[in-house]
Write a structure and sequence with these properties.
This protein is α+β, with helices and mostly antiparallel strands. It has helices at about 150-175, 180-210, 215-240, 245-250, 250-270, 275-300, 325-330, 335-360, and strands spanning about 1-5, 20-25, 30-35, 40-45, 50-55, 65-70, 85-90, 95-100, 100-105, 110, 120, 125-130. Helix 1 packs antiparallel against helix 2, helix 1 (about 150-175) packs parallel to helix 3 and helix 3 (about 215-240) packs antiparallel against helix 5 (about 250-270). The longest helix is centred in the middle third of the chain and has 30 residues, at about 180-210.
Amino acid sequence: MGALDDSAAVTAPGTPDALAILDVLDRDGQPRQTFIVREWPLRVGRSLANDMVLADPHVAAQHFSIAPAAHADSTDPDSPEARPLTLQVSSTRNGLQLGAKHLRAHEHAALPSGGDALELTAGRTRLRLRLPGHTLAAELPLAATLPLRRRAATIGIAAALLLLGLLLRTWLDTDPDGFGRAAGSMLLGVVVAGGVWCGAWALLSKTFAHQARFGWHLRVFLLGSIAGLLVSALPPLLSFMLSWPWLSDFAFVGTIGVASVALYFHLLAVEPARQRLMKSVAALCGVVGIALTLWFNVQRSDQFGDELYMNHLFPPALRLARPVTTDAFIGGLTPLKATLDKKAKDTSQGEEAASGEGEE
């Protein structure tokens, strides 16, 4: 057994074939050191008497060993390759983690010869054992790196679209006399907030992934902001066109969804090797955000939606829903009478109780 290097591609005459490969993994799951197993048994620990020596202080002198089973039904029992492998934990305080199973000192487990490579954890050292029968993962394609001009063009176009969208929203929300001041404040706030936001994510990426990826985070910020503007503008328009008030009532679901997707892509630059975990974190944040918004809405207005009524007005030509007669509209308000009476009664009782306490 020895370390894998460039000379390992050519096997010297008389050298036994590789029986297994044992990788020492870093925190991202990438091999930090690779050993080729050419004979059994394989002994792992901190002692120099082991075949593979680990420098982890949480590993015992001889932590565990892997060897073919002593007795097995095989046509050639003398061949180690024909016998199943057994993992034996030695005298250790911390035991050994084999996949999802924790083995204590002096316990043993049979190692499957097929399927995916086996994940082991000895102390704080992550290991991966790959046998000849284990599935070899397919080659992953390299992420395409766009030229600097195209990346700068993408950022410039996204920034221009975001600027136009924000200026349009500011123009619609403010009076003509105060548009210049409002636009300047908006631009200053967006630039400062975007710089701080992307800079913080770049610092996290530099800390954990050793690459700042500021351009990546800037693109995520710009595209996520554009998507957020669209998601916040479409529900009121569709509610007006189709007479569906619930669309604008629960528009926050789409906004939180866009924020969760943007959070996932930010996290992807921080932990690129843990895509599944990052998806779970982003999805959990989205679910928690929606649940908290619903709870705050109930506390504020006794309903799950954001709006008490649909207050968005657009040109009548965009209206697709059929108009109703005045009698039909008044008749539709009848179910609200009981709710309004109950609200008025609760309000009057609360005022009487407050006045009574004040007199005392």
